[in-house]
Design goal:
2,3-Dihydroxybiphenyl 1,2-Dioxygenase, domain 1; 2 helices; alpha/beta; single chain; 4-stranded mixed beta sheet; 16% helix; 2 domains
Length: 129
């Protein structure tokens, strides 16, 4: 039987590395673990930590294909981040000029959540626990 312990990391390809790096490190406050330029691919790779755990790889490539649609394209729909206080998180994002959608309530859990987007339009969710 296959025994998976947890998600190890999530890979994100961005269209403008410097803008996305600023968003993920300064706006979302993810910690940089490692940053390398992969000359053979003309590509940056930024390893980011969330709450002290390595979890996101941010890649740049010279001409990445655009996302087909938002958010119901086949494949990964969105990334969800857990927060303790949704109102506080929304105020923080607003102060960084990041717009969030109206708060919704999960019909099955009763928990509140909202969506916002990264610089490339990748849907991101804040889910209150």
């Amino acid at each position: 039987m296959l025994k998976i312990n947890q998600i190890h990391h999530i890979a994100i390809i961005c269209s403008d590395y410097q803008i996305s790096k600023q968003f993920y490190t300064n706006v979302l406050a993810f910690e940089v673990e490692r940053e390398v330029f992969r000359e053979a691919r003309s590509s940056w790779k930024l390893d980011l930590k969330i709450a002290g755990k390595y979890q996101i790889e941010l890649f740049s490539f010279p001409s990445p294909a655009p996302r087909p649609s938002r958010p119901e394209a086949a494949g990964l729909r969105h990334l969800a981040f857990e927060v303790n206080d949704l109102n506080e998180a929304i105020l923080f994002l607003s102060a960084k000029n990041v717009q969030t959608e109206p708060i919704r309530v999960d019909e099955f859990t009763g928990k509140r959540f909202t969506f916002f987007a990264d610089p490339d339009g990748l849907p991101l969710e804040l889910y209150e626990v």
